[in-house]
Write a structure and sequence with these properties.
heterotrimer; A alpha+beta; B alpha/beta; C alpha+beta; A: four-stranded mixed β-sheet; B: alpha/beta; four-stranded parallel β-sheet; four-stranded mixed β-sheet; 42% helix
Chain lengths: 161, 416, 540
C-alpha cells in the first residue's frame, strides 16, 4: 500500500482523477469521489494526503481539511482491516441496539470509535443506515448485516479475517 | 390487496437487470415522454398530483416549473439518493431492486426540464445499492438509452457518492456536497431552480418521486391522481419499522390510514403488546399517540394532527418504550448531524441533547422540560434550512404528549 | 431606484441594496455578526432578522434586497424577541472570559447582549471546550471557544487576500475555526481578521493584555508606511502609563475609505508605529562638542543653524528633504529654501531594499508624501543638484552645510562609501528627524522633529489624494513639528526676515496649508474642512 505520508497517485489513478474532474462543470465537484479514491489507495486520509489532493484541485489544504473533517466516512487515522458500524438510532435502539453495542464492546474489548489492538476491527456506532426493517443492524465493510442477535454478531465477527 | 405499482418488481428475480425490467414493461413511459413537449410533460405531472416523496411533499410539476422560462443555461437534474431520515429505507429498495425505474424516471424528468446532465447523489454508506445502480446504468448506456449521442437530445447520468452526512439529504446541502464542499445548505434566495448546482438551474428530486414517472406516463395522470386523495396522487412506499410483527416496505395508495399500515399491512404490534406511540414520517415528524392514527397517510393527514408525512418512515413504539429514552436517541442524532453553519441549530442541538441525556441518566431538573420546549420554539423557523425544524418536531411533541412520563422520571431521579 | 419604508420612514436606495444597508441609510441599526459589506453574504448568524410586510416569518436582512414598495419593521415585539433568542443561542457555549478577554469593551456579544438580550441565562450544562490561546501567525491569537463561527475571517482569507489559510472544521457545535495543521496565518493582511472578528476569538498578539480599550483615546489619522496613506485611527493610552508599558500609542485600526484602503490595512502599516514611542526618539536639540552630542536649547540650536544658513553661500548648502514630511512641513521648507536661494535640494533617497506594489494595498514607495514633495517642488531648483549630486558635492567640500531631514543615509540605497565620504566632507551636518540613527549620530547639530502622529497636517498619496492626519498626542519631550522648526528660523535668518510669507509666519499647520493652496495650482480650492475625513484629489 502506498505510503500515506508521501502520497502520490499512480498514473492510472491520476487518469481517473482527471476523468472524474471532467464529469463536473467545476472540477471541485470531483473532490468527494477523489477523496474516496485516495482513502482506498492510501488506507486513510492523512494530512499529507489532504495536502496532496489539494494540489490536484488548486484548493488550500485548509479547505480540503474542512471537507475531510465534515464527513464521517473519511478516516483521518489508520483504520482496522474491517469497519463495523452499529446503528444506534431510533428503530435499532427500540429493537435492542444497546445490547448489541454492549456485546460488541465486550467481544472486541474496545469502545466505539476505537480500533482493536490487533488492527482487525474498527468499531463504530453510527446514525441511521436506513435498513430499519432489519433492526438491529450494522454495516460490516461494504455490506449490511441485520436482524442481529448476539449469536449472529459472534458469527460475523468470527468470520472476519 | 391494492395493485403493486412502485414495488411490482421488488420480489422478481434479477429485477435490477435491463432485460427483466423491459419484460415488465419498462422504458415504455420514456417512449411516450420523448414524443411530448417539455411543457406538456410538466402539465401532465402537475395533473397527476405527484408530490415529492423525500420529505417536503412539494408538488413535483410545480417545482419543475420554477426553472426560469427561456433560460439557455445548462440545467441539472439531481437525484437525492442520500436517504438518511431515520425510519426510512424505501429508496434503498428502489436502488437495489428496481434501479431502471429510477433511470427511466430521470430520463422523463430530464426531458421535462430540458436537462442534459443528471447527477445521482447516493449516500456513501449505500455501497451495495451503488454497485447495483452503477451496473444498471452501464446497461442503459450500452443499450443506447443514455449518452449525449442519443437522438432527441440525449442525457448523461453521473453517479456521485456521498461520504456520511445526513444534512446532505437537504436539497441545497446536497448541492454543496455535489460541488465538492461541506454539505452546508445554502442561504435562499436564490432557489436551486434559478441558481443551483454550480450556479445553474437545478431540480433536485427524490428517488421514489422519479420512479413514479414511468407509471404516470404509461397509465395517465388522471389514473395516478385517482389512486390517491384530493391533494396527493398515486401510491407510495411506506417504510414501517419498530415494534411491528412484519417490518418492511409497504406500498399503498396515499389514502391508506396509519392504523391500516400498522395493523393490516404489518401485522400489528409484536408480542401482542399495546401501541404507545408512532412516528409517521421519519424521525423529524412529530410523534402521534394511539388515538391519532386514523388519518390518511398523505401530505395532509399527519399535518392535521400537528405532524407530517415527511419521508413516510413509520416507527412504531409499544408500551415497553421509555419516551424520554427515545428523545435522548433522537436528540443525539440531531446534535451529531447538525452541520454547524447557523447559530440556533448548531448551539441548541448540542445543548438539548445534553439535557435529554441528563434526564435519562436520572439527573434531570424540573426546569429542563420547559427549557427544551422554549429553546426549540425560539429556534424554529429561524434557520438556513429545515433541519432544525425537523429536530423541533420530536423535541416538542415527545415532551408535550408524554410530559407526565418525563416529569415522573425527573422526580424519581432514575430510569423507570 | 427602489423606494422602501423602514420603520415608517420612506427612503430611496440603489437597486441591489440589502436591508441592513437600507436601514443604515435610514438611520436604523440592524444588529448583525456575519454580514460585512466587504465580504460575501453568509447568512449564518441569524441575528439580523427583520419583519417584512406580507412575509409570514422574519427574514434575515443581509440576504434580502430592497424591493420597491417593501415595508420593513425592525423594532416589532417579534423582531425584538427573535434577537433575544439569537443572543441566547450565541451565548450557549460562549465562555465567560470577559475578565481576561481583550475584546471586552468593544465586544459585539457584550454590546448586543446589553441592547437586545438581557435575559436570565439558563444553560447550566458543560459548555463545549475547544483550543484556547492558539497563535495562528505572528500577529493573530485564536481562542476557538470564544468563536461564534460567523466565518468572516474565513471569507476574508478567501475573498480579499486569496490565501485560504482558515477553515471551519468538523460540524455541529464541535465546529472549529482553524488553520491546516502545520501552516500559519502569514499573509501580509492577517491583522484585518482581528478587526472583523466581532468577538475575542481573534485578537491581536501585539496588543494582548496591554491596556483595556475603554482607557483608549482615538484619533483619525493616516498610516505613514507607504504611498497609499491608508486611513487609520490611532488609539492612544494617554493617562495610564502603568499600562501598555508606558507607550502612548497602543494600536492602529483601519478607518474606512472607499477610494484608498476600503476597510483594510496591511500588517506592516498596522504594526509600524513602534518608532513613535521608541527609546530612539530624539527629544532634545543637541550640538556636537568634543565629538559628543550635547543637549541644548532650541534657542541655541536654531541659532547654530541660522548662523550657518547666513554664513554659507546658497550653492554651498545641500538639503535632503523627506517624503516622510507633511505637505505643510515641505511647503515651509520650500519657502525657507526659496528665501535663501538654495537650489541644491531633493527628497528622493533610494531605499536599501526596493519594494513592490501588490494587488491589494501595499505600494513599493514606503513614503507617505512623495507626491506632495513632487508637487510642492522639493526636487532640485534651477541649476541645483539632486540627492546624489549633493552627496558627492559634500564629499568634495563644495557643499559645506548638509541638511538632512529624516533620512538615515547610512542605511539607504546609496553606496556606503559614497555616504561616508559625504558625511566626512561636510563641514556641518544638520540632522532633523524623529528617531536617532547612524546618520544622526554623525551630525553636528540634531534637531528633534515631532512624529506625524503628534501634530496636524496632510499627506498626498500616490493617487494624488490629499488626506488629513491629526495630532493623537503632544510631541515627545522637546520635539517640534518640522513646519514649526522651520518657521522659527524666519526671525533668526536675516535673509528670511524680509520675506513676507504666510507659511513662515504660521502658528498653526492649517495656516501653512492655506498658504500653499494659494501658491500651488494642484492644490487650488482645498481646505482642511473640504478635505474632511476622506481627502480630495489634487488638480490634474
Amino acid at each position: 500500500m502506498p505510503d500515506p505520508k508521501r502520497p502520490e497517485f499512480t498514473s492510472e489513478q491520476l487518469a481517473e482523477v482527471r476523468r472524474l474532474q471532467g464529469l463536473y462543470p467545476d472540477k471541485r465537484g470531483a473532490l468527494l469521489p477523489v477523496l474516496h479514491l485516495a482513502q482506498d489507495a492510501f488506507g486513510y486520509i492523512s494530512l499529507d494526503v489532504e495536502r496532496y489532493v489539494g494540489t490536484l484541485f488548486d484548493l488550500s489544504p485548509a479547505h480540503v481539511h474542512e471537507v475531510v473533517t465534515f464527513y464521517t466516512l473519511f478516516f483521518q487515522q489508520p483504520k482496522g482491516r474491517h469497519i463495523v458500524s452499529v446503528c444506534h438510532n431510533l428503530s435499532c435502539h427500540l429493537l435492542g441496539a444497546k445490547d448489541i453495542i454492549q456485546h460488541m464492546k465486550e467481544r472486541l474489548g474496545v469502545e466505539p470509535g476505537e480500533t482493536t489492538p490487533d488492527g482487525k476491527v474498527t468499531f463504530l456506532t453510527v446514525e441511521c443506515l436506513c435498513a430499519c426493517e432489519q433492526a438491529p443492524m450494522m454495516q460490516v465493510d461494504d455490506r449490511y448485516e441485520g436482524l442481529l442477535t448476539t449469536e449472529k454478531v459472534d458469527r460475523i465477527l468470527g468470520g472476519l479475517a | 390487496m391494492a395493485e403493486k405499482i412502485l414495488s411490482r418488481n421488488f420480489d422478481v428475480r434479477d429485477s435490477h437487470t435491463l432485460g427483466v425490467y423491459r419484460d415488465a414493461g419498462g422504458y415504455k413511459g420514456w417512449e411516450k415522454a420523448r414524443g411530448m413537449e417539455p411543457a406538456a410533460l410538466t402539465e401532465e405531472v402537475k395533473k397527476s398530483n405527484l408530490r415529492g416523496l423525500g420529505g417536503a411533499g412539494f408538488p413535483t410539476g410545480v417545482k419543475w416549473g420554477f426553472i426560469p422560462k427561456g433560460s439557455t443555461a445548462p440545467k441539472y437534474l439531481v437525484v437525492n439518493a442520500d436517504e438518511g431520515e431515520p425510519g426510512t429505507f424505501k429508496d434503498r429498495y428502489i436502488l437495489e431492486r428496481d434501479p431502471h425505474a429510477l433511470i427511466e424516471g430521470m430520463m422523463i424528468a430530464a426531458r421535462a426540464i430540458d436537462s442534459r446532465l443528471g447527477y445521482v447523489y447516493i449516500r456513501g454508506e449505500y455501497v451495495q445499492p451503488w454497485r447495483i445502480f452503477s451496473a444498471a446504468l452501464k446497461e442503459a448506456y450500452d443499450a443506447g438509452l443514455l449518452g449525449l449521442s442519443v437522438p432527441g437530445g440525449g442525457f448523461d447520468i453521473v453517479v456521485h457518492r456521498g461520504a456520511g452526512a445526513y444534512i446532505c439529504g437537504e436539497e441545497t446541502g446536497l448541492i454543496s456536497s455535489l460541488e465538492g464542499k461541506k454539505g452546508w445548505p445554502k442561504v435562499k434566495p436564490p432557489f436551486p431552480a434559478v441558481k443551483g448546482a454550480f450556479g445553474q438551474p437545478t431540480i433536485v428530486n427524490n428517488v421514489e418521486t422519479l420512479a413514479c414517472l414511468p407509471h404516470i406516463l404509461t397509465r395517465g395522470a388522471e389514473w395516478f391522481a385517482g389512486l390517491g386523495t384530493k391533494t396527493q396522487g398515486g401510491t407510495r412506499l411506506y417504510s414501517v419499522s419498530g415494534h411491528v410483527v412484519r417490518p418492511g416496505v409497504v406500498e399503498a395508495p396515499v389514502s391508506v390510514t396509519l392504523r391500516q399500515l400498522i395493523y393490516e399491512h404489518c401485522g400489528g404490534i409484536r408480542g401482542g403488546r399495546a401501541l404507545k406511540a408512532v412516528v409517521p414520517g421519519g424521525s423529524s415528524a412529530a410523534i402521534l399517540t394511539p388515538d391519532e392514527i386514523d388519518i390518511p397517510m398523505d401530505v395532509d393527514g399527519p399535518k392535521s394532527k400537528g405532524s407530517m408525512i415527511g419521508s413516510a418512515g413509520v416507527i412504531v413504539m409499544d408500551d415497553t418504550v421509555s419516551i424520554p429514552d427515545a428523545l435522548m436517541v433522537v436528540a443525539r442524532f440531531y446534535a451529531h448531524e447538525s452541520c454547524g453553519q447557523c447559530t440556533p441549530c448548531r448551539e441548541s442541538t448540542g445543548w438539548i441533547y445534553k439535557m435529554a441525556h441528563r434526564i435519562v441518566e436520572g439527573k434531570g431538573r424540573k426546569e429542563d422540560l420547559d427549557t427544551i420546549l422554549d429553546v426549540a420554539k425560539r429556534g424554529a423557523g429561524t434557520t438556513i434550512c429545515a433541519f432544525y425544524d425537523g429536530a423541533v418536531g420530536p423535541y416538542i411533541s415527545y415532551i408535550e404528549k408524554f410530559r407526565e412520563e418525563f416529569e415522573a422520571l425527573i422526580r424519581s431521579g432514575a430510569h423507570a | 431606484m427602489p423606494k422602501v419604508t423602514i420603520n415608517g420612514k420612506e427612503i430611496e436606495v440603489p437597486a441591489g441594496t440589502n436591508l441592513i444597508e437600507a436601514a443604515r441609510a435610514a438611520g436604523v441599526e440592524v444588529p448583525h455578526y456575519c454580514y460585512h459589506p466587504g465580504l460575501s453574504i453568509a447568512g449564518q448568524c441569524r441575528l439580523c432578522m427583520v419583519d417584512i410586510d406580507k412575509v409570514p416569518r422574519p427574514q434575515i436582512a443581509c440576504n434580502t434586497q430592497a424591493a420597491d414598495g417593501m415595508v420593513v419593521e425592525t423594532e416589532t415585539p417579534r423582531v425584538k424577541d427573535t434577537r433575544r433568542s439569537m443572543m441566547e443561542f450565541h451565548l450557549i457555549n460562549h465562555p465567560l472570559d470577559c475578565p481576561v478577554c481583550d475584546q471586552a469593551g468593544e465586544c459585539w456579544l457584550q454590546i448586543y447582549y446589553m441592547k437586545h438580550g438581557l435575559y436570565d441565562p439558563r444553560m447550566t450544562d458543560e459548555k463545549v471546550h475547544k483550543p484556547k490561546a492558539v497563535p495562528l501567525g505572528p500577529h493573530v491569537m485564536l481562542d476557538a471557544e470564544r468563536c461564534i463561527l460567523c466565518s468572516r475571517c474565513v471569507r476574508f482569507c478567501d475573498e480579499i487576500t486569496g490565501t485560504g489559510e482558515l477553515g471551519i472544521f468538523q460540524r455541529g457545535d464541535h465546529s472549529e475555526i482553524g488553520l491546516f495543521p502545520g501552516t500559519a496565518l502569514e499573509n501580509l493582511y492577517s491583522g484585518n481578521v482581528i478587526d472583523i472578528c466581532p468577538v475575542g476569538a481573534l485578537t491581536d498578539r501585539d496588543f494582548r493584555f496591554q491596556v483595556r480599550v475603554w482607557y483608549l483615546d482615538t484619533t483619525r489619522s493616516l498610516c505613514n508606511g507607504c504611498a497609499r496613506g491608508c486611513n487609520v485611527e490611532i488609539h492612544t493610552n494617554r493617562e495610564r502609563m502603568h499600562h501598555n508599558q508606558g507607550k502612548r500609542v497602543a494600536r492602529l485600526k483601519p478607518r474606512y475609505n472607499a477610494e484608498v484602503n476600503q476597510w483594510w490595512i496591511c500588517d506592516l502599516g498596522r504594526y509600524g508605529f513602534r518608532w513613535i514611542d521608541d527609546d530612539s526618539r530624539l527629544t532634545s536639540p543637541s550640538v556636537k562638542a568634543d565629538g559628543q552630542l550635547v543637549e541644548t536649547t532650541w534657542e541655541d540650536a536654531l541659532g547654530v543653524l541660522a548662523e550657518a544658513l547666513g554664513r554659507y553661500r546658497p550653492e554651498e548648502i545641500g538639503v535632503l528633504a523627506s517624503p516622510q514630511m507633511s505637505n505643510e512641513d515641505l511647503w515651509t521648507l520650500r519657502r525657507v529654501l526659496d528665501g535663501l536661494g538654495v537650489a541644491n535640494r531633493d527628497f528622493a533617497v533610494p531605499p536599501r531594499e526596493p519594494g513592490e506594489d501588490d494587488k491589494l494595498l501595499l505600494r513599493a514607495d514606503k513614503n507617505p508624501n512623495t507626491r506632495g514633495a513632487e508637487l510642492l517642488g522639493l526636487g532640485p531648483g534651477a541649476g541645483g543638484l539632486d540627492a546624489g549630486g549633493i552627496l558627492d558635492a559634500a564629499a568634495e567640500k563644495k557643499v559645506k552645510l548638509l541638511w538632512v531631514l529624516h533620512h538615515d543615509l547610512i542605511n539607504s540605497g546609496f553606496a556606503a562609501s559614497r555616504v561616508t565620504a559625504a558625511l566626512a566632507g561636510a563641514e556641518l551636518l544638520v540632522f532633523q528627524g524623529t528617531n536617532a540613527s547612524l546618520t544622526s549620530a554623525r551630525a553636528g547639530l540634531v534637531l528633534p522633529a515631532a512624529a506625524y502622529a503628534e501634530y496636524d497636517g496632510t499627506f498626498t498619496n500616490f493617487q494624488g489624494r490629499v488626506q488629513r492626519f491629526r495630532a493623537a498626542m503632544t510631541p515627545l519631550g522637546g520635539a517640534l513639528p518640522h513646519w514649526h522648526i522651520l518657521s522659527r528660523l524666519r526671525s533668526r535668518v536675516p535673509r528670511l526676515a524680509t520675506v513676507a510669507d504666510a507659511a513662515l509666519a504660521a502658528e498653526r499647520p492649517e495656516q501653512v496649508f492655506t498658504a500653499l493652496v494659494g501658491a500651488v495650482p494642484a492644490f487650488a480650492g482645498m481646505s482642511y474642512r473640504g478635505l474632511g475625513d476622506t481627502g480630495q484629489l489634487v488638480k490634474a
